Amino acid sequence: MSQSPPPQWYYRQSGVIPFRVGSTGTEVLLISSRTRKRWILPKGVVEPGLTAAASAANEAFEEAGVRGRVAEPSLGSFTYAKWGGICSVEVFAMAVDDVLDDWPERAERTRRWMSPADAARLADDPGAG
User: Fold this and answer.
1) How do strand 39-40 and strand 12-22 relate by DSSP bridges?
2) Which residue has better confidence, 43 or 2?
3) Does the structure show a pLDDT above 90 at 42?
4) Which of 17, 19, 55, 69 could form a disulfide with 50 if both were Cys (CB 3.0 to 4.6 A apart)?
5) CA dihedral of 45, 43, 67, 111, whole degrees rounded to 10
6) What is the rounded radius of gyration, in angstroms, for the C-alpha atoms of the chain?
7) Which of 126, 17, 43 is closest to 81 using CA atoms?
8) pLDDT tens-digit profile of 100-122?
9) From the centroid of its chain, how far is CA 38?
10) DSSP string of 61-75, one letter each residue
11) H or E element, residue 116
């Protein structure tokens, strides 16, 4: 039995590059994909009734356990193939204010703070999730 394709609005996504400035400079947060084999940005489907920025902030909380201020406009976007179509992801910077000890996907993901250069080197397939 085959599954029906997802609704068209699933292909509009948003995500964040969570960052903080500490004593050693700027750090960026990446999270593991659910398989824990790739480092990715928190991202997901833009929920109906939310802006791309607000939806991205929700993804940061759900997937990475961070809350903060999402800056607009977006930094840019990228596309990737998923569900038999092409997803378009709008990416925002997010200044992290709170790093939570518990969050919805804590059991499914690992998070790691790193330098922007390390994040650029380690970030993998944008479609992984």
Assistant:
1) unpaired
2) 43
3) yes
4) 55
5) 140
6) 14
7) 126
8) 999 999 999 999 999 999 999 99
9) 13
10) IIII-EEEEE-SS-S
11) helix 116-122
Cα–Cα distance measured from residue 29 to residue 47, given in angstroms and rounded to the nearest whole number: 23
Residue in this structure with the two tokens 């948003």, named with its chain if needed: 14
Q: Considering only 4-8, 9-13, 45-49, which range has the smallest mean pLDDT?
A: 4-8
Burial of 102 (0-12, 13-18, 19+ CB in 10 A): exposed
Residue 121 main-chain phi, psi, to 5 deg:
-75, -40
Rounded CA-CA distance 40/76 in Å is 16
The answer to whether 97 and 67 have CB atoms below 8 angstroms apart is yes
127 has a pLDDT exceeding 90 = no
Handedness of CA 61, 64, 127, 53 (dihedral sign): positive
User: Tokens 């204010």 map to which residue?
Assistant: 97
Distance in angstroms (rounded) separating the CA atoms of residues 12 and 78: 11
Contact 26, 54 (CB under 8 A): no
